[in-house]
Amino acid sequence: MSAIADNLQAVQARIRDAAVLAGRSPESIRLLAVSKTWPLPSVIDAADAGQSAFGENYVQEGVDKQTALAGRHLDWHFIGPLQSNKSRLVAEHFDWVHSIDRLKIAERLSAQRPTHLPPMQVCVQVNVSGEASKSGCAPADARALCQAVAALPGLQLRGLMAIPEPTDDPAAQRAPFRQVRELFENIRAAGLPLDTLSMGMSHDLEAAIAEGATIVRIGTAIFGERNYS
Ligand SMILES: *Cc1c(COP(=O)(O)O)cnc(C)c1O
Asked: Does 11 contact ligand 1 (Cβ within 6 A)?
């Protein structure tokens, strides 16, 4: 078995254990393998081990991998900051976008989504780390942004995404995830049928699952430490 296949099994075990501890069904949590910076053979190893959903942060890198793996019916999620001038490529190639942080980018994806494709599945990214992060909308703006995004054709609003500041303290990890879940529940109570909480990475997936994550986005624990050079 490849190291990546081993790592995938270990991550799936962590997800199962965290779900059981939280009294949740392990099937309610989807594993997104974050393959940014990793070359094609790593993605193929993971796909051969049964992994079907992949997350990418850089548009062209993601499109290149999709093109090379077109026959495999994988799901591709765009999870990085999205610039307006890259939105068309994303609209034409990805299945999901987790990083909607302003209406303008959602409007562009809506207008640019080809009509022969299913609606783009989208999450609104919320900034729960204040000044420490520039990505994501302010929590106070999330509901209005969700309402506006939900009204756009070509998009299906699924939920919220967040990337809290990293910390090793499990109790401190849970607080921002709880904030996102409460926001999610408020928005659902306002009538939007959200079903997705995209939160939790290699170092904090247990805390995210304890607070209700339905998609965990895992890179390092599957593929190893990234080298950006
Ligand atoms: C890189 C990245 C991840 C994966 O992080 P790891 O710590 O390697 O698991 C998840 N989400 C987003 C948005 C990322 O950019």
From this structure: no
What ligand 1 atom has the least distance to the C-alpha of 32?
10
pLDDT given at position 228: 79
Query: Tell me, what CATH number does 140's domain have?
Result: 3.20.20.10
pTM of the model as a whole: 0.97
Q: Is the dihedral of CA 14, 18, 20, 21 positive or negative?
A: positive
Q: Is residue 211 part of a domain?
A: yes
- Residue 229 domain-assigned (yes or no): no
DSSP per residue, 78-102 = E-S---GGGHHHHHHH-SEEEEE-S
Contact criterion met (CB below 8 Å) for 29 and 13: no
User: Does any domain span residue 228?
Assistant: no
State which residues form the domain around 173: 3-223
**The pLDDT of residue 29 is above 80:** yes
**Which of ligand 1's atoms lies nearest the C-alpha of 220?**
8
| Cα 134 to middle of ligand 1, angstroms | 16
Residue type, 79: I
Number of domains observed in the structure of the chain: 1
Whether 197 is in a domain gets the answer yes
